[in-house]
Amino acid sequence: MINKNILISIVGPTAIGKTALSIKLAQHFNAAIVSADSRQFYKEMTIGTAVPSLEEQNAAPHHFIQHISVQEDYNVGDFERDAISKIEVLHQRNNTVVMVGGSGLYVKAITNGLDYFPEVNPTIRTELNLLFENEGLNPLLEQLKIRDHKAYNTIAIDNPKRVIRALEICIGTGQPYSSFLTDPNKQRAFKTIKIGLNADRAMIYDRINQRVDIMIANGLLDEAKSLLPFKNLNALNTVGYKELFRYFNGEFSLEDAISEIKKNTRRFAKRQLTWFRKDEDIKWFDYKTDAEDIITYIKTKIN
Description:
Layout: E1 6-11, H1 18-29, E2 33-35, H2 54-59, E3 62-63, H3 76-93, E4 96-100, H4 104-111, H5 122-135, H6 138-147, H7 149-154, H8 160-173, E5 191-198, H9 201-217, H10 220-226, H11 242-248, H12 254-276, E6 283-286, H13 291-302
Parallel strand pairs: 1-4, 1-5, 2-3, 2-4, 5-6
């Protein structure tokens, strides 16, 4: 059906060129861009999150770029609610919207909908956070392995927040966290066309290393220093900032901190690809593919 609303979702690892492609597609389809990059939501974080430049933001309408403060509590459920509402409004003006971002869970929240979990006693999370602070991640992983082996094998177990979330559901409900992940996809009022950008691993890592060097040259150090008062907030527990906080604290030399940022960003890119490769609906293109070729593919999917 020609008038059917379309969401073009662009995914891929960090530093692969998603922003540039999203702008070309938005200009071609006269569409707005919705960011699904959870690090770019925060007003106070610009350099370390690779927020689109003012020139890029002026090239096409952008939404969910630096729209909240690091001091606000904003989660993927909030984003699902707000972004779906915004996409509905945008579709009233144009039947195509472009979404771009490498935050897999946030992308999934829009394209497929989130799994919903029962309310559990908040003291469980408090106790788990305390255990993590005092004894580290290993005791939590051991618990998760016993309580929900399936979740242990499928979630990002190097992410303390995800591990604590899974455990609090296991403890609070007496059922495995993974048992709540079986909800069928929600029906959306639009058709999603999923585009992935990729390159060989050496090229991705090289682009990441170059991007980090550019961030440092552009003033990431000063940006991180200005955020020191907020370093314990969840929004700042992210690559590019947490390593510099440790440098300010005397735990790293600057050279070591920069090296850690590069290493942790490369690991993040690897996790992104692992997540997105599970989605068989994504059509993958080499990052150097001409935008016109991708537009041609999208038009065949629309029709």
